[in-house]
Amino acid sequence: MKEIPDKNLTGLSALDYFREINRTFPKTRAIQEHKAAGKKVFGWLCTYVPEEVILAAGILPVRITGYTQETELEDGNAYLYINNCSFSRSCLQMGLRKEYDFLDGVVGGSTCDGARRLFDVWRFYLNPEFFHVLTVPRKFHERAHELYYHQVEGFKKHLEEYTGKAITDESLLKSIEVMNQQRKLLKELYELRKLDEPLITGAETMEVLNGTFRMHKEECNSYLAELINELRKKNQGHKARARIMLIGSVLNNPEFLKGIEDLDTIIVTDELCTSTRYWSEPVVLEGAKNPLEAISRRYLNNFPCARMFPSNERFDRIIQLAREARADGIISETIRYCVPYAHDIPLLSERLKHEDIPLLTLDVEYGTSGSGQIRTRVQAFIEMVEARKK
After folding, report:
1. Is 120 a domain residue?
2. What pTM value is reported for the model?
3. Residues 181, 49, 52, CA angle at the centre, nearest 5°?
4. 10: pLDDT confidence band, cut at 50, 70 and 90?
5. CA torsion angle for 91, 292, 162, 136 (degrees, to 10)?
6. Do 330 and 244 form a contact (C-beta atoms < 8 A)?
7. Which residues contact 100 (CB under 8 A, 6 or more apart)?
8. Which residues, 6 or more positions from 306, have their beta carbon under 8 angstroms from its beta carbon?
9. CATH label of the domain that carries residue 121
10. Which of 47, 133, 313, 366 is deepest in the core (most CB within 10 A)?
């Protein structure tokens, strides 16, 4: 694939630049230049993996995702049972087909069976130079924090052994500053979605988020700031029949969101590990013994995944987001065989019913752009929430 030319020479808007990053992935300029300079690139696959520690080691972190469209997964199916979710099988197929051959290391969290089996097969058949899986507690109490802190500390030591260099507090503080700036900018971007006429669509936001996973953080922050400035200069936002919140399993296919928004609606906020749960909380240094403790507390206390207990912590945040964005209804997409989110639905449905927030649940395959049946169900749901407003 072709490299991305310098933006100043091409005249790309900030949004177009993120699109170009995604179009050329996995052969993006940032990755190619980093490798050409003799530096390391690591893939990470869970929002409980502390990027700050990877950055502090001088390594470029790139999020591992699968194909952004529904694809036949012959290779993935050959190495993982089909009752592993199609996300894990899609990621594995990309790995087996050498589309992640630029990775020097892989880091993940033991967050679900699908991810854990993916790591096992990846390590055995792809044999990366560096491989690490963090044990992630399912609770938030002090013993859980102590456990996770030791996991992050062990990860740091493993990186130091691999690179032969110490990861200093100074380098950790610098990486915290960069990542907190990215989180601040993404929060500003999401505020533009809460307006009466949002200045950016859900599908466009997903394109931006995908780009943030595939480039240098400082460069990403520069383009995020530019994008926000460009959007604020727009004379008119997006009008729609209904305002929708999207929640559920891992999702990074903008076409899925566009399929919903093509029905004269707008996705004004979301709760996904590739969106709000990725950036929602900053690292807070005050009160922490050291930067590593502050990092570990941020990641364990961040917007919870469906695997975390108690569930009410996540439900409360979903409802708060829906209220703040004035969502008329919520659409939940669950990848088939995604056990944490499938088991979550009955409890969440009951809670949202009590809060009088309409919910549509969709059972999908990873990468789907929305079949005719899904489109029909979404359209009926939008008509229902629109009627409620009259």
Report:
1. yes
2. 0.94
3. 35
4. very low
5. -40
6. yes
7. 26, 43, 64, 94, 126
8. 314, 340, 341, 343, 344
9. 3.40.50.11890
10. 366
Edge-first strand order for the sheet with 105-109 is: 60-63, 41-44, 105-109, 130-134
Non-local (6+) Cβ contacts of 166 within 8 A are: 160
264 in any annotated domain: no
CA distance 298 to 50: 9
Whether 375 maps to a domain, the answer reads no
Concatenating the DSSP letter of every residue in 189-212 gives HHHTTSSSS-SS-HHHHHHHHHHH
Does any domain span residue 81? yes
CA dihedral sign, ordered 139, 168, 44, 129: negative
For the chain, the maximum distance between any two Cα atoms, rounded to a whole number of angstroms, is: 65
Q: How far is CA 77 from the centre of its chain?
A: 24
137: tokens are 């507690």
Residue 359 pairs in a beta bridge with: 330
Beta-carbon contacts of 90 under 8 Å, excluding residues fewer than 6 positions away, are 66, 67, 71, 73, 76, 366, 367
Summarize the confidence of residues 272-277 as an average pLDDT: 96
Say if residues 155 and 107 touch (Cβ distance below 8 Å). yes
Note the residue count of the chain.
390
Residue 72: its pLDDT value, please? 86
Mean pLDDT of all residues in the chain?
93
> Which own/partner contact pairs does 286-295 have at CB distance under 8 Å and 24+ positions apart?
290/169, 291/52, 291/169, 291/172, 291/173, 291/176, 292/53, 292/149, 292/152, 292/153, 292/156, 292/172, 293/149, 294/176, 295/50, 295/52, 295/53, 295/152, 295/172, 295/176
Which pLDDT tens digit goes with each residue over 34-88?
999 999 999 999 999 999 999 999 999 999 999 988 888 999 999 998 889 999 9
**Domain tally, the chain:** 1
Relative to beta strand 242-248, strand 41-44 is: unpaired
